[in-house]
């Protein structure tokens, strides 16, 4: 998954929104920033593993925020499944 796919798709931004998307099984792929604190990223990684959702970690908080069209950094984002 690339940031271009995130930009062009339907997504949610931020830890809480990403957690909700995982819980509701609406996330197709989760982006977790490589410079995110482990205490934040670990629970998301575990939730993705148990739900079988792929995770991308090759991007910074700044890159994810920019891809989502927000002016602040984002620790995570989820690309949503199309229904």
Automatic annotation (TrEMBL):
InterPro entries registered for this protein in UniProt: Ribosomal_eL30-like_sf, Ribosomal_eL8/eL30/eS12/Gad45
Pfam name, any one: Ribosomal_L7Ae
Domain named Ribosomal protein eL8/eL30/eS12/Gadd45: residues: 6-78
Coiled-coil portions: none
Name of the protein described by the UniProt record: Ribosomal protein eL8/eL30/eS12/Gadd45 domain-containing protein
């Amino acid at each position: 998954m690339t940031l271009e796919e995130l930009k062009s798709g339907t997504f949610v931004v931020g830890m809480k929104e990403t957690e909700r998307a995982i819980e509701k099984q609406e996330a197709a792929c989760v982006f977790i920033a490589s410079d995110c604190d482990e205490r934040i990223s670990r629970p998301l990684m575990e939730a993705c593993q148990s739900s079988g959702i792929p995770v991308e970690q090759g991007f910074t908080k700044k890159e994810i925020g920019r891809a989502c069209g927000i002016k602040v950094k984002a620790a995570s984002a989820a690309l949503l499944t199309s229904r």
